[in-house]
What does this fold into?
Amino acid sequence: MFHDRSVAQFPRRRKANPKRQKTNRQQTEDKREKRRARIALLVFCLQSGSEAIFCRAVSLGGFFGVTSSLARGLFGPVMALEPLKDGIRSLVRIDFYGNVHKRLRGTAAAERYATEVAVLKVLEERGCPYVPRLLEEHPEELYFVSTNCGQPASQISTEKAERIFAKLEREYGVRHLDAEARNITYSDKLGCFCVIDFELAEILPPPSGLMLAKPAAPAEPPTS
It folds into this structure.
């Protein structure tokens, strides 16, 4: 008796249920539409001044169905968390990449901005490893971006803080002039204490024997 082996080896496939396919496609499209609406709402709230609330919501786990990676891709480093410092003299925020955004304001803001930017550049040229690195400068806005030097060293003693400021002046020729413990941080990444806030600092001649580092090439602006 003749048997058609092709039929036995390759059984007929079941026909797809068009209703089920349509349902799956509709569900996928509904999810995409909701996602678009959530992103549009997030953009609207950011533009309306509710930046801190919605950034915190996104960072805490996708409150709007928008992941942190997608939010970073959409809005980049300008999408900052709540202010780390909101005082009379400055506004400081930390972005998603950990960089510090500082905007000077108040009395003599322009002078303090120019001083801090100049000091950070000099310290980089002189190779100081425990201070912020300048990433961006916007003099027309009295605003700059720098690397992060960790958390405030709230438990540091006055004597230890004084030794750090004295070392900065002795080895790198910068006198802080606001040598308080509040301007000392500790960086887990660097594994050491760091010095911040150079608005009132004074640049001294480089100490003898100091090897100046080659100036780094200017950083390229982030691509959107």
